[in-house]
Structures are given as structure tokens and as C-alpha cells.
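Structure first, sequence second, as always.
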């Protein structure tokens, strides 16, 4: 079976890897990439990078949409030096795409896409600003078969305080939720079928020297060689496969190497400067809807799947 897929992304390092993987996966028909300016890359740079990357992969038929400039709540941002690095794609040079992004706004694009295909799947690997609107628009909601989200930290510490030291008192939140906590809560309240890949499972798949060595020896497709180039440029000592894992769990649908549980979740909205938990994802028995949350993954199986698909 082939799935029509829209990827909603903030165009950071792990997003590039996820798009590379999805470009090669035989079960994925990539029908759109929506770029948010609320996250790792700035909006214009992230959009241009998405266009150039897709063209480089031979996916120049895939439309790219410029999304939000601001979150629904708060004003949380990634450290500026990190954003500049992502804008420059870690100094990886690709031929610049001459395509323009779609003229549609985000909601119009989603509506037009679900009208065309009937049902689509969505992978969110950035903040949930767009999805908060999309999932509360009835005619679009009906066309979303499932939303897969990389975000949240449930039984492990968050990663916000560790990232550049800009939010030193927040040890609970994960960045994709923290960047727009209200959007994350509204998306959870929508009732759209969802599966979440959180830090709990992402931390089970750290960077692997063995994987890197195998990729160096085996990379033969454009996407595999591009991922190898990413790995050469990045700080591999602190990397986890956040977005590639979410992409693989979506594309493989129900892999034997992953287990999941069904939970009610909610997102903390209040800010406390001294002991901040804003953006924390918590188990909530009173949540109006339940979502599937991946709890365990077999790292060796994921690494093998990632390599195999990249070289397909």
C-alpha cells in the first residue's frame, strides 16, 4: 500500500534526514512539504532549503508551502546561532532550486490536497502551529487519515534546558511542543487519529558509529549520500534520531520492532520563570481523546531499516 503524505517541518538537521528517508521509501507518496518559521530554520531559508533538497532528490514535483511566522502562544525560540546554522544547512551546498513555493496559504493547501487525494497522512516534525488550525477545520479534518507527531517527553526529562542555555529552568518540555504549547494542546483536543514519537523513544536511538561506518561503506543513492554528508558536518556526540525515527514508524506503519500504548495527554500552558514546566507533555486521564504513543523501539532494527530504505 502507498500512503499520500504531507510533511510539516521546521527544516533542521534531523528533518533533512527524515525527508531523505521518506524520499526513498516505497510506501510513501510525498504530496507536500509545509515549512514552519517557528522552529529551527527561519521561514524563508527553510522553504528555500526544502525546495532545493527535494529538487536534488528528483522530487521537484512535490509542492512546498510557506507556513507560520509566529506561534499561537508564547514567544519561545531556538537559539539564534542554531537557527543561522540551520538556515545555512550546516554549510552543506546544494544546487539552488529555481522553483517558487506554492501561493496557497497552509489551510488552503491542506484543503486542496485532501480534496485531490481523499485521504492523506501527515507527519509533524516541527511545532504544531499549522496542525492546530488544520485539525479543527471540519472538511480538512475528515481527510486526515492519521497524524504522526514527533514531540513531547512523558517519562523522561525534556531537552529545552540543555539546548544553548536559553531556557535554563525548563527541564520538562521537548522543543517541538515547547515552541508552541497552545498549538500542541489544541491538536491533542482535535480528535484526529494520532501517534506520537516522544523523547522517550527517541533517546533509545542515539547516533551510532556502526551505522555511520555502514553508511560510509554502502551509500549509493543520492539520499544516502546526502545523509552521510549531514552526518559528517553535525555534532554526532549529542545526536538522537528524533525525526527519522518518527518517519520510519509512520512509513513502516506497524513495525514489529516498536511497541506503543494508548494515553490521554495534555500540555502545560503556564510559565514559571524559576521552575518552568510550560510545554511539558503530561499523562492526563481526563483528556478528551486518547492517542497512541510509542514506548519502546529496537534500535538495531531501526538502524537496519534506515540504512536499507536510504539505499533502496
Amino acid at each position: 500500500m502507498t500512503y499520500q503524505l504531507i510533511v510539516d517541518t521546521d527544516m533542521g538537521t534531523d528533518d533533512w534526514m527524515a525527508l531523505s528517508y521518506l524520499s526513498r521509501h516505497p510506501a510513501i507518496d510525498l504530496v507536500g512539504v509545509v515549512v514552519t518559521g517557528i522552529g529551527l530554520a527561519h521561514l524563508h531559508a527553510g522553504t528555500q532549503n526544502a525546495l532545493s533538497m527535494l529538487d536534488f532528490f528528483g522530487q521537484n514535483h512535490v509542492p512546498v508551502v510557506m507556513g507560520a511566522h509566529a506561534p499561537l502562544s508564547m514567544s519561545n525560540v531556538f537559539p539564534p546561532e542554531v537557527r543561522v546554522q540551520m538556515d545555512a544547512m550546516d554549510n552543506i551546498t546544494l544546487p539552488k532550486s529555481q522553483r517558487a513555493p506554492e501561493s496557497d496559504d497552509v489551510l488552503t493547501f491542506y484543503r486542496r490536497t485532501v480534496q485531490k487525494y481523499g485521504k492523506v497522512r501527515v507527519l509533524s516534525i516541527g511545532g504544531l502551529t499549522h496542525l492546530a488550525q488544520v485539525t479543527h477545520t471540519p472538511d480538512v479534518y475528515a481527510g486526515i487519515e492519521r497524524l504522526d507527531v514527533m514531540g513531547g517527553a512523558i517519562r523522561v526529562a525534556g531537552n529545552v534546558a540543555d539546548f544553548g542555555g536559553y531556557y535554563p529552568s525548563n527541564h520538562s518540555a521537548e522543543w517541538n511542543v515547547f515552541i508552541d504549547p497552545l498549538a500542541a494542546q489544541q491538536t491533542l483536543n482535535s480528535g484526529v487519529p494520532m501517534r506520537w514519537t516522544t523523547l522517550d523513544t527517541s533517546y533509545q536511538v542515539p547516533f551510532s558509529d556502526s551505522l555511520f561506518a555502514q553508511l560510509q561503506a554502502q551509500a549509493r543513492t543520492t539520499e544516502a549520500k546526502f545523509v552521510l554528508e549531514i552526518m559528517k558536518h553535525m555534532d554526532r556526540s549529542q545526536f538522537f534520531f528524533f525525526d527519522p525515527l518518527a518517519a520510519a514508524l509512520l512509513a513502516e506503519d506497524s513495525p514489529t520492532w516498536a511497541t506503543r500504548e494508548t494515553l490521554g495527554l495534555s500540555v502545560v500552558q503556564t510559565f514559571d520563570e524559576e521552575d518552568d514546566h510550560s510545554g511539558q507533555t503530561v499523562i492526563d486521564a481526563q483528556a478528551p481523546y486518547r492517542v497512541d504513543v510509542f514506548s519502546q523501539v529496537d534500535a538495531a532494527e531501526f538502524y537496519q531499516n534506515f540504512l536499507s530504505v536510504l539505499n533502496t
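Margin note: The chain has one domain: 3-310.
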